[in-house]
Amino acid sequence: MTEEWKDHLNEIFLKEFLRAPFKEMFIEIINEMLMTTVEDDSVAEERENLLKKIFLKEYKLLRVFSKGMLNEIVNEMVISTDEERNNLLKRIFLKEFLKKLSKERFNEFVDKVLLSTDEDKEHTSPSEKATEEETTHTYMYNPVPGKHKKYRDDEKHSTTLQRMKRLGRRLCRKLGLKEGLLTSSWNDHPRKVGGLAFPIEEDGPVVRTQYSDVRGLYVEDLEGVIFFGLPYGEPPVGEFRWKPPRQYNRSWAPKVRDGTVPGPGCYQSRCGPNDGDDVFQCPRDRKVSEDCLYLNIFAPRTILNSAAAKLPILFWIHGGENEQGSGSAYFYDGRFLSNKTNAIVVTTNYRLAAFGYLVAGQGEDAATGNYGLLDQAAGLRWVKENIGSFGGDKNRVTVFGQSTGSDATSTLLISPKFADLFHHAIMLSVPLTIPHKSRWEALRLGDHLADKLGCSHGDMKCLRSKNSSALQAGLDRMGTFFSNPYRPLEVSVKWGPVVDGDIVPGPTVDSFAKGHFQSKPFIIGTTSEEAVLYIYSLYNKPVTSLVTLYAIYAAFVHLKAVEVSIEYPTETNTSDYRPHMSKLTTDWVFKCSTRNVIRSAVRKGNTNVWLYVFDHVWSFPHLWDYQKNCNGHVCHAEDLPFVFQTTRLPVTNMTMTAEEQKMADAIAYYYGNFAHTGDPNQPSRDAAETTRMTMPGTATTWPKYNQEGNFPCLNISTPSTSLIHDYRKDKCDFWDRMDVYNL
User: Fold this and answer.
1) Where does the record place the Carboxylesterase type B domain (predicted)?
2) Whose C-alpha in 151, 169, 313, 651 is 20 to 30 A from the C-alpha of 400?
3) Number of structural domains, the chain?
């Protein structure tokens, strides 16, 4: 290797992306893997095994590379021409993780570095050099576009094996590893592995399920395992669009299912291949499909010990206004939460927008809505039937969600149809005041979509004839639409559950008030400034007092509007009333409806309930780059980075302070205890389950909501958690008197 190459690599690649000791390894990979072409499957499999050994076992590069990217490199790049390889590298690397590296500089890197044929031989032994001299003229990559010298049929496997073993020995020397560590399992008779990118058993844990075996990933630093993309329902496509989910019942045998790559997310906008990355909402690799009923499992490695105690489940339902989101989004990666709580975290997809909630037509072919909710229930049913294979306890399932995912959780609580599927609930930032639609309102929304698609109202044949992208395009054209002009809050959540008297028996707040809910332990709470995100999105410029009063009168009938105006008087010394509107809306939509529901639960006999408020402004300055007005505020979703602790994933490019880490650990302590015992203060008594469950010094005992008679609320913040009594009492007493939680 020339000094010029080394300097160029160090300047462009190492400084911008890789950390030592990966530089030399990557040079070796490029030299060894890109300079030949292979036609024999067994040779290709040995080559894949080599990449697996280097990338996964010794270098743990899954912390830096995405699994999808590695698969694509292995499966496509090594058999492409040099020109195709050049373009593929640029496309994959730029798309997957080199977002901060300019395209021009990366093109320069690919052209001048990766396509070079020089080899680093400074540590090559004389015998290895002799072997290279014998084989190079036959097997070296030919840098002429579209031309490769081929292996001779009788020598291609043995020579490839020699080259791989030589590469393995070099890498061991460079890293100070025991020689042979990378090559000890290689022999002249490679196993047939079925075409998987990282196929052999050493790659990750293999679990036997009722569908046959599935292979996952090890998370070595966390002593964890991950199983991605497990189907919990048959694809809801074709004639099964707008039908309840069907139980998945296909065997994977004789193959071992690849659980190392997430399945596609459910169809949604702004997550396509030409859109920007969104670690908050979009599925990994930004792949969306109607075939999307997949879930992911994150677990401690103790599940591999059949004698270990069964662990509880934290089943996550993502938010996103029922129009966006995915269980595989990086923001909801459950590996850190699983590690902190010593529980199994399950994240899931469910059908969104019209794909999941359309109401249209009549008779047997009608779309009746609530399919997204039924998907969530189907995921829970899959967990009940299969989680034992993964070391989980089907009798300790905690459903938790945020925003519309939390609304779904509350809906599961009021529906007796789902009572046997879970045991505890955690509801983060549930917008209880935003009503579920009646059938009449949902039909009006469906008719509006039909107009945008050029279909007659209720014409299911026409609606079903639209492919996924056409249907999504129609959704994108709908704009702001009020199916009921007297319910202005639906502007925030257009699609969602429909009150049908069966799956959704009634409005959530009313159902709790009447005692129509499952008496299960639950935690519920909000951030301190929920509505800032919504008000500043709705009004992107300062608003006057007149506009504020008009908005109040538009939201409430006349007499109640007068009372609201008196309770929340407009100030006279400001030119922007959006902060005023944010406080009013946070109380009305989030905080006080939450207090109303938890008080109803206590009155109806459910005393195992806990209330919190999250009140910390994150130190990381770029969380709200897309919504600058949330900087300095505790907006909707501000708590999620601390719940999942995904700041530790390089792809999120986020940080937290030491105090914030302690706060995040306190949250994990409360949620972990709750998953184990149904009490956020009570760890499991089983020693095998409590290894990670120690009370952080910043945590405090969290009383039940009615335990002390003055309605305690846990204030989650830094430097420590604390208790607030009678939180927002005066304002919430006012909203209870107004009886406006179902407008």
Assistant:
1) 204-735
2) 651
3) 3
| Claim to verify: residue 288 and residue 416 sit in the same structural domain | yes
Query: Is residue 135 domain-shared with residue 235, that is, in the same domain?
Result: no
pLDDT of residue 55: 44
Q: Can you tell me the distance from the alpha carbon of 38 to that of 420, in angstroms, rounded to the nearest whole number?
A: 54
pLDDT of residue 42: 61
What are the respective helix, strand and coil percentages of the chain, to the nearest 5?
45, 10, 45
If asked whether residues 102 and 217 sit together in one domain, one would say: no
Q: How far apart are CA 450 and CA 458, in angstroms?
A: 8
Q: How far apart are CA 218 and CA 204, in angstroms?
A: 5
Task: Tell whether 31 is covered by a domain.
Answer: yes
**Spatial distance between the Cα atoms of 148 and 143, rounded to a whole number of angstroms:** 8
Assess whether 327 and 244 both reside in one domain: yes
Contact 554, 738 (CB under 8 A): no
Over the stretch 705-734, which tens digit does the pLDDT of each residue have? 986 778 999 999 999 999 999 999 999 999
CA-based nearest residue to 329, from 288, 283, 298: 283
Question: Which of 403, 406, 415, 582 is the catalytic position?
Answer: 403
**Structural domain includes residue 244:** yes
Beta bridge partners of 108: none
Token code pair at residue 708: 């002390």
Could you say which of 436, 467, 494 is where a domain stops? 436
Distance CA 331, CA 333 (A): 6
Q: Tokens for 491, please give them.
A: 């502007």
Q: Are residues 422 and 540 in the same domain?
A: no
Q: Which residue has the tokens 């809906």?
A: 411
Residue 127 is a catalytic residue: no
pTM of the predicted structure, to 2 decimals: 0.74
253 and 351 fall within a common domain: yes
Q: For the chain, how big is the Rg over CA atoms in Å? A: 28
Q: Which of 224, 195, 201 is nearest to 214 (CA)?
A: 201
pLDDT at 41: 60
Residues written for the chain = 743
Q: Would you say the C-alpha torsion 90, 93, 99, 100 has a positive or negative sign?
A: negative
Q: Confirm if 401 and 409 have CB atoms less than 8 A apart.
A: yes
Do residue 154 and residue 276 come from a single domain? no
213 in Cβ contact with 257 (< 8 Å):
yes
Q: Is 321 left (phi over 0), alpha (psi -120 to 50) or beta?
A: left
Residues 168 and 639: their CA atoms lie apart, in Å, by 45
pLDDT tens-digit readout, 627-682: 788 999 999 999 999 999 998 887 777 889 999 999 999 999 999 999 999 999 99
User: CB–CB of 59/25 below 8 Å?
Assistant: yes
Q: CB atoms < 10 A from the CB of 603, how many?
A: 12
- State the Cα–Cα distance between residues 210 and 537, nearest whole angstrom: 47
Alpha-helical runs (H) found in 309-429? 335-341, 353-357, 371-386, 404-414
In a domain, 160, yes or no: yes
| pLDDT tens digit sequence for 133-179 | 333 322 222 222 332 333 333 333 344 445 444 544 554 454 444 44
Helical packing angle, 545-555 and 578-585, nearest 10°:
20
Same domain, 171 and 230: no
Is 569 part of any domain?
A: yes
Range of the domain at 97: 3-175
Other CB atoms within a 10 A radius of the CB of residue 385 amount to 14
**CATH assignment of the domain containing 360:** 3.40.50.1820
Determine the pLDDT at residue 29: 53
Pairing label, strands 217-219, 224-231: antiparallel
The one-character DSSP state at 531 is T
CB of 67 within 8 A of CB of 217?
yes
Domain boundary among 175, 201, 227: 175
Residue for token pair 């139980």? 247
